[in-house]
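Sequence in, structure out. Go.
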Amino acid sequence: MEYVKFGNTGMDVSKICMGCMSFGSAQSGFHNWTLDEKESRVIIKRALDLGINFFDTANCYSYGSSEEILGRALKDYGNRDELVVATKVFIKMKDGPNGQGLSRKAIMQEIDNSLQRLGMDYVDLYIIHRWDYNTPIEETMSALHDVVKSGKARYIGASAMFAWQFQKALHTAELNGWTKFVSMQNHYNLIYREEEREMMPLCIDQKIAATPYSPLASGRLSRGINANTKRTETDDIQRYKYGSTEAEDQLIIDRVAEIAEKRGITRSQLALAWLMHKPPVVSPIIGATKIEHLEDSVGAVGVSLSPEEIAYLEEPYVPHGVIGALLPGAK
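Output:
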């Protein structure tokens, strides 16, 4: 495993981040394809053995059970001082008033809930999961600053928003002397590159670490569009993200398969290697429901692509509708 500095910080993270949305109770009502605790622990243990020190979860993943499973496994198998643990806040966690969002009330409640489920005194990275149109950004940034100053989080990050929103948050924090975001977890892969228009240049300019989610486009870059798994058969989100552009995306998927075969590597390794060549990406977030998927992804570390290969992979891309950032009124 290789380790890199996390954007404009002194913290070291593995070049692969273990995403934990796959872990949790399938009966929670969140996703029905997730792994139970016994299955999840096997993958978490193998990730640690492979040198992964960066784990990303969220309060909403299986409505808390992902955090619980991850926390217990890391306590049993890992060294907390060497680990980088991220979780998130925003998505609805309960019915009734103040059950979601980025108000001071919600943030202060949810950081404590997450820490309790994780069994930890602090998280290394506390991420706002989406932009909250119903809360002043000043309130959100002030509350996040207090979370850091209280010792409950070391750094703060953001996820899936428009570049103007991210810049507004960065400016608000700088204006008031509050803690600034150090990372952006955005939707970015070979068949979804809309982030290259504004968000990625902003992150480069501000030395923000990018940790892309869906780096394999829900498996489409690793096994093609027509391959069926339990997740592809039941996951409406991946169909929402990529279902309307299958014809255009197939041209890129074919080129991924072509180059991977020539290079003697897997499609997943090629797609992840492409991401690792794109500044300011530091650590793509990979999800795995099988050990071999995890080991395959780690094999991407160190794979070098030529400028000609990168250009060949990118050439068929056509503009896509924005998927990830919320529009006003969305939930």
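Check: The two ends are 38 Å apart (CA to CA). The chain has 13 helices and ten strands.
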